[in-house]
User: Fold these one by one.
Assistant:
Number 1:
Amino acid sequence: MAAFARILGFGHYLPAKVMTNADFEKLVETSDEWIRTRTGIQERHFTEEGETASTMAAEAAKRAIEKSGIDKNNIDAIIVATVTADMHYPSTAALVQRALGITRPVPSFDIGAACAGFVFGLTIADSFIKSGLYRTVLLIGAENLSKFTDMQDRNTCVIFGDGAGAAIIQASDKPGILASHLATDGNYTHLIEFPAGGSRLPATHETVEQRLHYTRMEGQEVYKQAVKDMSEAALEAMKRAGLTLDQISWVIPHQANTRIIETVGKRLNFPMEKVFQNIAHVGNTSAASIPIALSEMEQQGLLKREQNIVLTALGSGLTYGSVAFRY
Ligand SMILES: CC(C)(COP(=O)(O)OP(=O)(O)OC[C@H]1O[C@@H](n2cnc3c(N)ncnc32)[C@H](O)[C@@H]1OP(=O)(O)O)[C@@H](O)C(=O)NCCC(=O)NCCS
C-alpha cells in the first residue's frame, strides 16, 4: 500500500475560438463594462464543430502524460469530471480511453460533481492509490458548457467557457495529497440546474420550445453560498492537513467570478497575490477550471515542488469541497 498519492504533472487544452465580451454585446443586452466589473471575465474559449468534452479531455490528457513522463499503458484508472459529457452514455472517460489508445481494460468512468468535480476526483484518486487498489490515475476535468448555455440568456451566457485540464496522480513515498473535505447540500439542488433531457423531463418539442435544455441559475444565491462554502471548505482542508495559512503558497479557487474569488481570499485573510486567478481569459469552465489553472501555473513557473497548495470549489448540487496537497 502506498503512503501517499502525488501529482506528477498537468496538461490542459483550450479551444482556439475566443469569444470576447464585445461578441456578447451582439447577442444580448449587455456590455463589456458590466461583464468585466460584475464577473472579471474578458474573454472565454468556445468549442467549434468537431470539438467535444472528450476530444478536449483527450488532448489535455496527452499533454499531462507527456509532462509527467509516464507511459500511458501504466495508467490504472481514468476519471473524467464533467457535466457536459459527449453523450449520456458511454462515459466521456470511455471515449477518452479509446482516443488515447489505452487497450488494457482499466476502469474509466465519469463523475458529476459540477464545478467541484476536480476536487472530488482528486479525492477519489487519492483513495484509490492509498488503498493500494491502483498506482497511477489519470484525472481530467473537461467541460463543453457553450453547448448547454442559452445564448439568449444574459444571466448565464457571458459566464461560461469551454476547456479541459488533466493531472496524473501516482503512488509515492513522499507526501502529495494531504487532506480533503467534500460536501453536498441537497437543500440547494434548484440553484443551478439543467432542467430537461434527463429521466424527469425527457426531450420533447415542448422542452425545446421552452428552452429547458440549457443551464438555469439563481446567480445571487449561488454567489452567497460560494463565498461561504468555498472559504469554510478551504479552512477545513488546511485544518485536516495540519497546515496554517503561512505554510500555504497558493490558494486556487474555482474560477467562478472575480468577486467571489476576492471575497474568499479576504475571508481566509490570505494575501491576494497568492490567490490564483485566470478567469479573465477563460471564464467559468466548471470542472475544468481548477486543472486548467494548475496547468497554466505550472507552465508559467508559478508552481514549485514542495509548495503546499489549497484548492477550493463549489458547483451545482450544491456540491463543494477542497483539497490540500504538496506539489
Ligand atoms: C451571475 C452573476 C455574475 C450576476 O451578478 P450580480 O451582481 O449578482 O447581478 P444580479 O443577478 O443581481 O443582476 C443585477 C442586474 O444585472 C442584470 N444582468 C444580469 N446579467 C447581465 C449581463 N450579462 N449584462 C448586463 N446586465 C446583466 C440583471 O438582469 C439585473 O438587472 P435588474 O436589476 O434590472 O433586474 C453573479 O451573481 C455570480 O457570479 N453568481 C455566481 C455564479 C456562479 O458562480 N455560478 C456557477 C457556480 S460554479
Number 2:
Amino acid sequence: MIKDGTIGMQEDISKVRLSYGRAIAKQEFLPRFYEIFLASDPSIARKFENTDLKKQQELLAMSVNMVILFPQENKIAKNAVGRIRESHQRSGLNIEPRFYGFWISSLIQAVAEHDLEFDAALEASWRKILQVAIDYIIEGY
Ligand code: HEM
C-alpha cells in the first residue's frame, strides 16, 4: 500500500540521497559532523567520552542512509532505525529527545559545508526527511 505523503516525499528523498552522496565523498565530512555535534552541547560531548569516533563515523555513515530511506517504508531502513530507536531509549544509551535537534542542525551544517549544490530548498528537503525517522526514534524514548 502506498501511504499518504509517500509520493510527495519521493522527490525529497532522491534529492537528499544525491546531496548526501556528494557530501560523504569528501573525506572531511564525517569528522566535521562530529566536531560540530560534540561542540554543540557539553552533555553531548560527555556521552561520547569513551567512544572510538573513527568506528562511530562508519556506523553513522551507514545509519544516515537508513534514516534517509526510512520515510519510504523501506524494510531494511525500518529495521535499522528500529534498532537505533531501541539502543537510544531511556533504559539504554538514554539519549534525551532534546539532543536530536542538535544532531539535525549539526548534520545540516556539515552537509552545507561539503555539498557544493546545497541551498535553502535542499535544506528544507533534508529537514523534512530527517524528521520522519527522528520522530519515530524519539517516540521510543
Ligand atoms: C537519527 C539520529 C541518530 C542516528 C542515526 C544514530 C546512530 C547511531 C548508531 C548506528 C550507533 C551505534 C549502534 C547503536 O548503538 O545503535 C549509535 C550509538 C550512539 N549514539 Fe547515536 N544516533 C543518532 C542520534 C544520537 C544522538 C542525538 C545522540 C546524543 C548524544 C547519540 C549518541 C550516541 C551514543 C552515545 C552512542 C554510543 C557510542 C559508543 O558506542 O560509545 N546518537 N548511534
